[in-house]
Amino acid sequence: MPTVRPLINVVWFKRDLRAQDHAPLHAAAINGLPTLLLYCLEPSLLALPEHDDRHWRFIREALDDLQRVLTPFGAKLHVWQSETPEALQAIDARFQIKNLFSHQETGLLRTFQRDLAVATLCREKGIEWTEFEQDGVRRARKHRSGWQKAVEAHLEAPCVKTELHRIRFVQLETAQNAPYFDQLGPAPEGMQPGGATAGRRYLDSFVGERARQYSKHISKPADSRRSCSRLSPYLAWGCLSAREIWQAAEKSKNMPGMRSPLANFQSRIWWRSHFMQKMESDYEMEWLDINRAFQYLPRGQDERLFNAWAAGNTGFPMVDAAMRCLHATGYVNFRMRAMLVTFWSFTLWQDWRAGARHLARLFLDFEPGIHYPQWQMQSGTTGYGTLRIYNPTVQCERHDPAGAFVLRWVPELKNVPPPLLFEPWKMTPLDQNWYDCRIGETYPAPVVAFDKASRIAKDRYWTFRQSPEVQDALPGIWRRLCVGKAGEEGGAENSS
Predict the structure, then answer these.
(1) Mind giving me the DSSP string for 430-450?
(2) Of 130, 152, 314, 386, which has the most beta carbons under 10 Å away?
(3) Quick one: what percent of the chain has pLDDT higher than 70?
(4) Residues 187-206 pLDDT 10s
(5) How far is it, in rounded angstroms, from Cα 73 to Cα 126?
(6) CA dist., res. 224 & res. 193, Å (int)
(7) Which residues pair with residue 39 across a beta bridge?
(8) Alpha-carbon distance 471 to 464, whole Å?
(9) Do 430 and 460 touch, CB atoms closer than 8 A?
(10) Rounded Cα distance, 417 and 371, in Å
(11) What does pTM read for this prediction?
């Protein structure tokens, strides 16, 4: 007689590496069947140019933290280096999967294709796959009518209480592992640690005290490192839910001096969902211009300029400091991110796709649903909204007047005082000898003349943006992707 395979549930973890406010775990508890927990380190994702060891190290730490939470309940989180359909096939050969529970994911093309393959497998195997919304993002929406109220309702709804003690956990006897995780060493100093436990420490200190200076310091490259929430990687990889963070901020708004900065912070959480909804509604923005007419306004692909920008050797101190800071720590504030993007897309007049992939690798908080819409907005390929080209010298003068941030990350300029620190190419030969900094030798000469290059880019861009092809595409873009007044966009918490 054929062996009867026990019926089980599988909870599949993706960008939701937490135990609380976790609808799939809650569903498994209510369902009552024995439950197996699964995370797949997928080789196809490891191979993508958007990912870096810093992401996988953070995820490994988050998985270890999650396992510590689960262990008292007799649960084992199965972490396999495998494509998800293959892992589900292996599990279904030992057990009979009745239900697959997971969150929806607004990700890259590869994860979308993966989900299609999982859906096909579930149909073939008779597995009922239930996906739960996350972050207030709604699938298959063709317009934004009513979306604003829906996302606000999501953020204000009670967090899902996960009763882990109600779940009967099962595990496979055959050992599986993820050798790629094993070869990763500890995180470099300055890189935030992964996991919900670390995330809650950041959350508690932010809503308890650090938020007081949030609005004042949000644009400051040095001060923002303490006064901004620093919750973005925990949001990006799902160690904390947007709803949990929103409600913690709401609870603390009654503290003296906290109402205004925390309301400002909550608006960033809302904008985060807004941008993720954009990519959910148009996943091709990962590689195609949102306004398709911009394919006829080509930008360059200069390897020399890419290497200088990507390494932080452009000769513009604030640009270089921001890029080097990203290499070392995985974080800079929103203003610095926007400056890096506009410098690449306008001042250097380079194709946004290569720049977007590079910064994806550097951002510890890489979230596709924010990354690509923000890149295109800052690069002007939507065809609407205000065009901003961030002048690196002005950013120094306004937001780092003493040069603390620049000097921290560009030590070649350690002897150069402001204002020459912000425009070192203006030093005379005598200045260069006096300050022991020789332009073109110990520190690069500017790769372009900023004012001239930016002016040419602006003229080229605005001429094209006013074309009938760009303008004719706008009503459909506004209807599908925008809320409120067309062109009103903000920053998202994955930079704050």
Answers:
(1) HHHHHTT--BTTTBPPPSS-H
(2) 314
(3) 97
(4) 899 999 999 999 999 999 99
(5) 29
(6) 18
(7) 13, 79
(8) 10
(9) no
(10) 35
(11) 0.95
